[in-house]
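Regression test case RT-17, inverse folding.

Input:
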């Protein structure tokens, strides 16, 4: 009606618009896609050539281990969503939990072995990209199975009494999917550079923003109060801003020490 004031945007609408603008800025800024992917990983990954997969002559913008973790997390979350477990509220049975935790420990042990090798200490085996990528992928699927229920318990008002991985036969296809992805990454086939890299970097963003969103819910005392995605948007925005600030700070420190390239390797 004439003479009436427009309804102002509420907090949720502003959050949704801001999130959409962040996506548009990423898509339409003039830098090449490879540089954008490199920049997102820059703050948390050394990006050393000897630790990275190559596709043709081009280095993947994130190292094999970190890329495996984030890609495995993304694949695991996507697989659970396809299974209808996107709002799974319960952790897997103890036996499956033990296996998932074992995957994370295996990745950690491989990382310790690689670090000892860099320091010229005795190691059971020489580090290699197969182990870096493989243990990273396993750790990523483990994080998906364990973190998703914790996220849902922290965020949603109405608990969904569903388990993430409730049976071994549900975990097995996810592991097969990881194996296919891992073989594709290790193939070094040039056309796979961007599909593999985008999966890893997008997984990094999803994982870090998920953690930031949970922290926002706890700090703002909004745990267990979200009913729908519209209500979730402000918490996601706070988590995203926190991640951007953290990544900007770590990137600035790294740039001041090492410049725009990769961090030098120990050996």
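Golden output:
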């Amino acid at each position: 009606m004439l003479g009436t004031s427009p309804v102002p945007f509420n907090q949720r609408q502003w959050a949704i618009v801001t999130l959409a603008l962040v996506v548009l800025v990423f898509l339409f800024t003039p830098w090449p896609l490879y540089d954008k992917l490199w920049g997102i990983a820059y703050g948390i990954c050394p990006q050393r050539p000897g630790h990275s997969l190559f596709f043709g002559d081009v280095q993947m913008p994130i190292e094999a281990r970190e890329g495996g973790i984030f890609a495995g997390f993304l694949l695991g979350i996507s697989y659970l969503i396809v299974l209808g477990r996107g709002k799974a509220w319960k952790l897997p049975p103890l036996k499956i939990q033990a296996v998932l935790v074992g995957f994370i420990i295996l990745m950690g042990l491989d990382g310790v072995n690689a670090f000892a090798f860099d320091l010229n200490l005795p190691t059971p085996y020489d580090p290699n990209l197969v182990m870096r990528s493989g243990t990273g992928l396993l750790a990523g699927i483990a994080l998906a199975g364990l973190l998703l229920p914790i996220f849902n318990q922290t965020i949603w008002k109405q608990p969904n009494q569903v388990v993430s991985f409730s049976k071994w036969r549900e975990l097995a296809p996810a592991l097969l999917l990881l194996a296919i992805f891992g073989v594709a990454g290790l193939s070094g086939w040039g056309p796979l550079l961007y599909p593999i890299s985008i999966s890893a970097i997008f997984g990094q963003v999803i994982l870090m923003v998920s953690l930031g969103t949970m922290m926002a819910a706890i700090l703002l005392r909004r745990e267990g109060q979200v009913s729908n995605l519209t209500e979730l948007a402000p918490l996601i925005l706070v988590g995203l801003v926190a991640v951007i600030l953290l990544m900007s700070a770590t990137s600035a420190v790294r740039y001041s020490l090492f410049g725009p390239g990769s961090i030098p390797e120990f050996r």
